[in-house]
Amino acid sequence: MSVVTRFAPSPTGFLHIGGARTALFNWLFAHHHGGRFLLRIEDTDLARSTEEAVDAIINGLKWLDITWDGDAVSQRSRMERHAQAARRLIDEGNAYHCYASPEELAEMREAARREGRSPVYDGRWRDRSPSEAPAGVRPVVRLKAPREGDTRIDDLVQGEVTVANRQLDDMVLLRADGTPTYMLAVVVDDHDMDITHVIRGDDHLNNAFRQLQLYRALGWEPPLFAHIPLIHGADGARLSKRHGSLGIEAYRDQGILPEAMCNYLLRLGWGHGDDEIIDREQATSWFDLDGVGRAPARFDVSKLLNVNAHYLRACDDKTLADLVSDRLRRSIPAPLAPDADARILKGMASLKLRAKTVAELSEMAHFYALDRPLPISPEAATLLTDDTKGLLRDLTQDLRNHTQWDGPSLESEVREFAGTRQPKARKLGEVAQPLRVALTGSKVSPPIFEVMEILGREETLARLTDVFE
RNA sequence: GACCCCAUCGUCUAGAGGCCUAGGACACCACCCUUUCAAGGUGGCGACACGGGUUCGAAUCCCGUUGGGGUCGCCA
Q1: Which residues of A are identified as catalytic?
Q2: CB-based contacts of A289, cutoff 8 Å, min separation 6
Q3: Sign of the CA dihedral A96, A163, A268, A281?
Q4: Nearest nucleotide (C1') to alpha carbon of A277
């Protein structure tokens, strides 16, 4: 039997970190076993599901390169099939109509709580004759669940978990308006889609028992379950918007690379020895459920950033340069310098060693993209004194006679200038820092002689002249 | 409250009875390198929640305590 997994988000918001990891694990597991990975949108909650959320989820998955086989299935489109399954259960005596009012239900729960019992429905309509039905009340359909014994699941991550059936009540299958509940829909869809492994957050662990009962009532072979721990925020509490747990696209906007995000997510709750940097191919061959931990993991931005820095360094210059040029065009109101793209590309190799995100990279590439006159940051401007401006004037004069314009030759030229052509010998740093300020507008930049080479003779001289004139 | 799950450095984890005076990574600190910032290199700080068992021997097995998390909807 070939493996079939699925990711089944409800489109009530963006694709968040936890969902992305669940999707990744499902994808990896399916591909590891040469199986298929499906996508199903659980949009049965008509009130809360939105088209925007569907798009956000799909775009997020595409960005992460988590591809699904076949078309995404809309759960909503299958409502008739779900209802049909419920009707069959009624016909076979495994489900029944329940006319209990919301008030009755609330009372039941309250009473149970008072008496220290699990707050469950007491099954009062289980065996009553339909003739006793109150007039004018539309019933829900409930599963006639077993009342004795235990229900046990053999979870691939959590191990064997057992719960007493009296803790579980007769769950609602069809609402009073005839629409299917989540419990019914998931079971019917997973069965119809031939899902073999249900890998999902462990907030569903308790649902698994009820779903198992449903599978049995329907006479279907249940899938294998794997409930993975949830991701928590840095404070150990459940991840929420308050923690900056935004949609996955927010991380894209911050300049996280999708490969880095996947690598980070993979290592969150899963380990393979001491390995840290694991690409998709390697992950596919290594991934298995027994490597998944059982304790919730905390989301740690600094590690994400570190992994991202790694992927940034490994990424090819052209790809990054395009990303950066794009960002700069959007963030800088004035047109970029004519040579901006070429300079950014040439400078990328050393720029990318210094950044943790594409956003930072863009920040650092700023000075390559801008046209003259270059703005000088306030703290950098403090290095421009009468003394250093004089120094730069002399250096510029010197450089005008220098024709060979490459990093190494410029470096030896400037070293010589600093050491021997000044009234008193200067340390290289005394010249290099003001030079850096003049050429980049900042006290921090890639190696300054490399910058000179990339900027070119004319631009370098012009930027220098701007400073002391 | 009831039920279920979990528990190794601040964080992610390695560890499946002796290989553990507990390993790696991130973060942090120091030093080296150095024209700045990084990167890189070297070193440092730092954990088996607690208490009982079992065993010649326990981070690893069992029980309890504590702590954390999850679920208890005609939401998904």
Answers
A1: 241
A2: A29, A156, A157, A199, A226
A3: negative
A4: B25
φ, ψ of residue A384 in degrees (nearest 5): -95, 90
DSSP H helices, A11-144, are 17-32, 51-63, 79-91, 102-114
Whole-number Å distance, CA A117 to C1' B2? 5
The arithmetic mean of pLDDT across residues A312-316, rounded, is 95
Amino acid at A203: D
What count of other Cβ atoms lies within 10 Å of the Cβ of residue A18? Answer: 21
Identify which has the larger pLDDT, A134 or A183.
A183
ipTM for the assembly: 0.93
Q: What is the nearest nucleotide to A158, using C1' and CA?
A: B5
Rounded to whole angstroms, the Cα distance separating A266 from A82 reads: 34
Distance A296 CA to B16 C1' (A): 20
Distance A153 CA to B56 C1' (A): 39
- Given a contact cutoff of 8 angstroms between Cβ atoms, the answer to whether A181 and A173 are in contact is yes
| Amino acid found at A444 | V
Query: For A423, left (φ over 0), alpha (ψ -120 to 50), or beta?
Result: alpha
Q: Are A55 and A248 in contact (CB under 8 A)?
A: no
Q: What is the DSSP string of A142-157?
A: EE----SSEEEEEETT
CA torsion sign for A424, A426, A432, A434 is negative
Nucleotides of B under 7 A from a protein CB: 1-8, 10-15, 23-27, 35-39, 68-76
Whether A242 has a pLDDT exceeding 60, the answer reads no
| Inter-CA distances, A118 with A150, A167, A184, Å | 15, 6, 22
What rounded mean pLDDT belongs to chain A?
Answer: 92
pTM of the model: 0.93
The total of other beta-carbon atoms located within 10 Å of residue A226's CB is: 20
- What is the pLDDT at residue A234? 81
Check whether the bond before A333 is cis (ω within 30° of 0).
no
The most confident of the ranges A134-138, A355-359, A423-427 is: A355-359
**Residue A328: Cβ within 10 Å count:** 20
Nucleotide nearest to A446 (CA to C1'): B37
Nearby residues of A453 by Cβ (< 8 Å), 6 or more positions away: A405, A406, A407, A410
A280-287 contacts: CB < 8 A, separation 24 or more? A280/A65, A283/A28, A284/A28, A284/A31, A284/A32, A285/A32, A286/A32, A287/A25, A287/A28, A287/A29, A287/A32
